[in-house]
Amino acid sequence: MASSGTVTSGEYIKHHLTNLTYGPRPDGSWGFANSSAEAADMGFWGVNVDSLFWSFLLGALFLLFFAKVAKRITTDAPGTAQGFVEMVIEFIDENVRSSFSGKNDVVAPLALTIFCWIFLMNFMDLIPVDLIPWGLSYLGIHFQKVVPSTDPNVTFGMSIGVFLLMIYYSIKIKGLGGFAAELTMHPFEAKNPILKVLFLPINFFLEGVGLIAKPVSHSLRLFGNMYAGEMIFILISLMFGSGIILSLAGGALQFVWAVFHILVITLQAFIFMVLTIVYMDMAHTHH
User: Residues with catalytic annotation?
Assistant: First the structure.
């Protein structure tokens, strides 16, 4: 696309980083944005349709695949699909047992869903950056980001979901008073009643900042790593069509980065899952 001479490198990069956004226009009507500027002007009510579509599609594929394997499970020699599913479940189970000290039947399925879902979303980064947008352009769809985890709305949505679960179980397990005590009685303690009262707002501020930082860091870690990986793929793709030597060099770089990126997409899904388990463990732990 950049090599055709119709757009500059900057326009090419900006185009590939723009979501297919649906929302309110300045005249009051609703529709799809025709540029990144229009998408930004839609503000809070703008919906990144491509991120929602691909994330829901990948989540549905994960559920259908695991459900299909579960219906055909056998105690005899397992097939390839059953062996793969059992390996993934055992891997998740080991991590939950080692990091979660409480008793909650929700944690293991939650960890399994998060790991597989995020891995599939990250895996979309290995698809050539021009392939799907080029195909959809014939249908009149000019913007398409196919890696949902490069959209901060998606990563923040997942981290906020985990955060709300953590708050819910903190209150359910410890009670409202116990949860409030965790936020106001640490890290500074005193036996003197006057000092204890003075420390309450200080402790609440420090613990509150740490509490709010959890979903923020949880989401930005995934978004930042995947966004950087996608950007590198886009920059490498600029080399294609710029001569035989640069095209060959771009192909070699793309292969090397794709192999390395397999580790990145797996690691980021694993880290998000482990932090979820740790946060749930903190919600079930009495201090």
Answer: 217, 221, 225
d(CA 47, CA 39) in angstroms, rounded, equals 9
Greatest C-alpha distance within the chain: 77
First to last CA, the chain: 58
What residue type is assigned to position 170 of the chain?
S
- Selection from 116, 142, 124 nearest residue 230 by Cα: 124
Q: What is the pLDDT of residue 6?
A: 62
Which distant-in-sequence residues (6+ apart) come within 8 Å of 78 by Cβ?
86
Running DSSP on this structure, what letter comes out for residue 250? H
pTM of the model: 0.90
Domain ranges across the chain: 2-284
Sheet holding 47-48, edge to edge: 30-32, 21-24, 47-48
Instruction: Give, in order, the Cα–Cα distances in Å from 98 to each of 162, 167, 278.
Output: 19, 22, 10
11-14 contacts at long range (C-beta below 8 A, 24 or more positions apart): 12/234, 12/238, 13/231, 13/234, 13/235, 13/238
Residue with tokens 């991120």: 51
Return averaged pLDDT per consecutive 10 residues of the chain, 287 residues in all. Answer: 59 88 89 88 90 96 94 83 92 94 92 96 91 87 92 95 95 91 85 85 92 94 94 88 80 89 95 96 85
Shortest CA distance to 166 belongs to which of 84, 278, 261, 283? Answer: 283
- Cα 184 from Cα 178, distance rounded (Å): 10
